[in-house]
Amino acid sequence: MPHTNNLNGKSRPFSADRKAKRAGRKPAFLAKKPKSSKTPSAKDAVVGPAPAAAASSDPSIPRDRTKQTELIRAFHAIEKQLASPALTDPAERKKLEDERERLGGLAEYQRASVHGGDAQRGGESSKWLVKQIKELKIGVDSKDKDKANHKVEPTILEDGTKVWPKVERKKLRLLDIGAIAGTAYAGYPWISATSIDLNPQAPHVVKSNFFDFAPPQKDEDKYDVVALSLVVNFEGSLVNRGHMLLHAHQYLTPRGYLYLVLPLPCLTNSRYLSHERLTSILASTGWDVVRKHDSARLTYWLVRRSEDGPDGKEWKREQVRKGAGRNNFVIVVKPGAPIERGVAPSRDGTETEAATADEE
């Protein structure tokens, strides 16, 4: 069939004129609109609160994820140099401290972490915990557990509508330590999270040290879960790390859970700690391991209060593996020892360090 613009191989008279008019022109949807230099007037202004994304933006934090990661790595590098025994020159120390302040110090580091730049944190570790809570039916009413553990069949009404049996779940109370902005469990309406942090980045996060946060006095106010996600490794006091495992009991229901997350090298590359030794320390401090999992960067542990409770044993720094290139991360347990105050935060236990001379 010949083209509509051709007649016996010859162009229609008007087709050339139409093509001439369209020459050099783009369809309207492809044409770029010129940028307006008009200043928005009050009439054009948005009335009401700013969008959530805009409200949460921080001009001091780089938007680019790579730059956020670079900021955090620079902070870690400075902390590592400041903690090195080889740093003896006061002028060099002052230079590093000034550089840390130029980067914004701990507050800036935490804000960058909130914006997702800290690759070491591995994103929100709450996802793994929520998955375990669902699989273990934690918070599901005991009379509904049999229902939850078997295949659920709906009731079919006369009109064909399917009605699924409702499984009752109580609202879990969770204490999130080192929550920063307190967003980890915001997307789960069946979790009531209380968030605390030394340097909170949101108004609903309580500014408090874990050891100074008052434990609940009434049974109904106790928590079902205490989350120590990437907290113990930042505690500079080796003794306080053990105290955290003991102190968590005061906040929990009789068979409550502790959620512990550490950088994986704290167990796989430490001179003083391994999976086996951590399991023994947890048992000694009153915890039964329920679930554990290692990702490429982190190790996740969900443990439950044991019926026997802590056994009062001390755990000192003892070498579990040898070889160069190890880190010195360790958890020391000294029941009854006072809480140590004023100890600088740890770098996180993953950096390779030389063996120290003051080993116990």
TrEMBL record:
<protein>
    <recommendedName>
        <fullName>25S rRNA adenine-N(1) methyltransferase</fullName>
        <ecNumber>2.1.1.-</ecNumber>
    </recommendedName>
</protein>
<dbReference type="GO" id="GO:0016433">
    <property type="term" value="F:rRNA (adenine) methyltransferase activity"/>
</dbReference>
<feature type="compositionally biased region" description="Low complexity">
    <location>
        <begin position="37"/>
        <end position="60"/>
    </location>
</feature>
<dbReference type="GO" id="GO:0005730">
    <property type="term" value="C:nucleolus"/>
</dbReference>
<dbReference type="InterPro" id="IPR029063">
    <property type="entry name" value="SAM-dependent_MTases_sf"/>
</dbReference>
<keyword id="KW-0808">Transferase</keyword>
<feature type="compositionally biased region" description="Basic and acidic residues">
    <location>
        <begin position="61"/>
        <end position="70"/>
    </location>
</feature>
<feature type="region of interest" description="Disordered">
    <location>
        <begin position="339"/>
        <end position="360"/>
    </location>
</feature>
<feature type="region of interest" description="Disordered">
    <location>
        <begin position="1"/>
        <end position="70"/>
    </location>
</feature>
<dbReference type="Pfam" id="PF11968">
    <property type="entry name" value="Bmt2"/>
</dbReference>
<keyword id="KW-0539">Nucleus</keyword>
<feature type="binding site">
    <location>
        <position position="178"/>
    </location>
    <ligand>
        <name>S-adenosyl-L-methionine</name>
    </ligand>
</feature>
<keyword id="KW-0949">S-adenosyl-L-methionine</keyword>
<comment type="function">
    <text>S-adenosyl-L-methionine-dependent methyltransferase that specifically methylates the N(1) position of an adenine present in helix 65 in 25S rRNA.</text>
</comment>
<feature type="binding site">
    <location>
        <position position="197"/>
    </location>
    <ligand>
        <name>S-adenosyl-L-methionine</name>
    </ligand>
</feature>
<keyword id="KW-0489">Methyltransferase</keyword>
<dbReference type="InterPro" id="IPR021867">
    <property type="entry name" value="Bmt2/SAMTOR"/>
</dbReference>
<comment type="similarity">
    <text>Belongs to the BMT2 family.</text>
</comment>
